[in-house]
Amino acid sequence: MAVRVKKLHPALKHGGYSATGLLPGEDPTAFEKLHQELILELLPEGPLEDDTVASIARLLWRKQNLETVRIAESARKRHSAICLEKIPPTTPPRPPPFTSFESLRNWEPPSPAEVEAGEEAAEAQARKELGDNYQFVEMGDVATRSQMLEDFEVEDRLDAIIDRLLKRLWQLKASKSLSSTASSTPLPRLSGPQKAA
Question: What is the pLDDT of residue 4?
Fold first, then answer.
């Protein structure tokens, strides 16, 4: 059941959080330390190598901090359960198989005020129970395993396209290098068979 979120976390407003990057509760200083250690180890030169090292840092960070994604999913599941408990259903319940619809005849949908009161009670209980982990509820589907894998798949496809373009660029440069070397260097004369005198 969708519940309105009244206030977004600042990083959500500008897309600062991603399942493959730093998530709430994770230490930005520790992430930066990891990134700097990788830079020292791999010694990147230029924007392509810098981007590759940054990608390695994010992947290594996410691998080391998978627990954050698990906590986020757990918080969202608990929030959903609280909403089911507190918010009255706005559609009639489905009767069990092989029973009459008699029980549904007297069903009336809740008033908008009852729904709103249920939503407020659910949010209050979720905020209290989840504490700091409530921010994962506010994030929606961003911090989930499926979103993380989807993000990695998109990044992998983009990296594959970049790799193909780099390969094409290197081939063009090699071709130009060969043609400029060939035009500036005279071809050696091949000596043929010599005539006998």
Answer: 43
